[in-house]
């Protein structure tokens, strides 16, 4: 289950500093059935902010699929300087991305490649959206595709994020707190609902 991964991430974050992490948990809902869970963590230390998210879900489409995702995003001085994502389906790596500043150079990679060397500047990412409402933000940097994607404010705390493949996620905030994410995907409509 995802608990091992979560413990590893929590240990990684908490091992760096004694300060408590903020945590948010979401059920992954398909139809009226809970099929998984997302755990998001945020940790601040001096000029750095660390985000870690892990999810576990089981789908019964034709054959059962177990999907695990992992996301780590780090900021320094309010600017993104590291992110890594992976998606595993039945324990096989399906997608991954990586962006980091390392030894004076920027490295970017989105599966299946090739890698690039260029800096991406970003203050808003999908990880940050789980802890703050993106008021008046025109774009969000999506870690899984390493790209700035349009964010459309719909009013009433609702925002539509348009991904490069034209699929959309709808984020719904109440009192500045993210309560639901509606995920529009081919064959599967999901809702991430705050626990």
Structure description:
The chain is mainly β and 195 residues long. It has one domain. Helix content is 9%, strand content 59%. The protein has two helices and 13 strands, in the order H-E-E-E-E-E-E-E-H-E-E-E-E-E-E. The protein has a 13-stranded antiparallel beta sheet with strand order 7-6-5-4-3-2-1-13-12-11-10-9-8. Strand 6 (92-102) and strand 7 form a beta hairpin. The protein starts with a helix and ends with a strand. The model is unreliable at 1-6 (pLDDT under 50).
Main features:
mainly beta; 59% strand; globular; disordered N terminus; 195 residues; 13-stranded antiparallel sheet; single chain
Q: What amount of the residues lies in strands?
A: over 45%
> What is the straight-line distance between the termini?
18 Å
Tally of domains: 1
Structural class category: mainly beta
Please write the string of helix (H) and strand (E) elements. Answer: HEEEEEEEHEEEEEE
Shape: globular
Strand order of the largest sheet: 7-6-5-4-3-2-1-13-12-11-10-9-8
Helical element count?
A: 2
Which percent range fits the helix content?
A: under 10%
Chart the SSEs and their pairings.
Elements: H1 3-16, E1 22-30, E2 33-45, E3 48-60, E4 64-76, E5 79-89, E6 92-102, E7 105-110, H2 126-129, E8 139-142, E9 147-155, E10 158-162, E11 168-174, E12 177-184, E13 189-194
Antiparallel strand pairs: 1-2, 1-13, 2-3, 3-4, 4-5, 5-6, 6-7, 8-9, 9-10, 10-11, 11-12, 12-13
Brief synopsis:
The chain is mainly beta and 195 residues long. 9% of the residues lie in helices and 59% in strands. The chain has a 13-stranded antiparallel β-sheet with strand order 7-6-5-4-3-2-1-13-12-11-10-9-8.
């Amino acid at each position: 289950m995802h608990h091992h991964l979560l413990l590893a991430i929590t240990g990684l974050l908490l091992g760096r500093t004694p300060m408590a992490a903020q945590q948010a948990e979401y059920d992954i809902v398909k139809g009226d059935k809970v099929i998984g869970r997302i755990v998001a963590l945020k940790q601040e230390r001096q000029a750095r902010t660390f985000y870690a998210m892990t999810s576990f879900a089981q789908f019964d489409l034709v054959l059962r699929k177990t999907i695990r995702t992992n996301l780590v995003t780090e900021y320094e001085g309010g600017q993104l300087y590291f992110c890594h994502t992976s998606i595993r389906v039945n324990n096989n790596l399906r997608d991954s991305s990586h962006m980091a500043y390392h030894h004076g150079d920027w490295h970017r990679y989105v599966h299946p490649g090739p890698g690039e060397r260029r800096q991406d500047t970003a203050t808003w990412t999908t990880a940050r959206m789980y802890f703050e409402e993106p008021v008046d933000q025109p774009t969000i940097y999506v870690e899984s595709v390493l790209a700035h994607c349009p964010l459309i404010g719909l009013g009433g705390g609702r925002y539509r994020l348009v991904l490069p493949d034209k699929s959309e996620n709808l984020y719904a905030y109440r009192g500045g707190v993210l309560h639901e994410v509606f995920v529009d995907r081919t064959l599967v409509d999901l809702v991430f609902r705050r626990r």
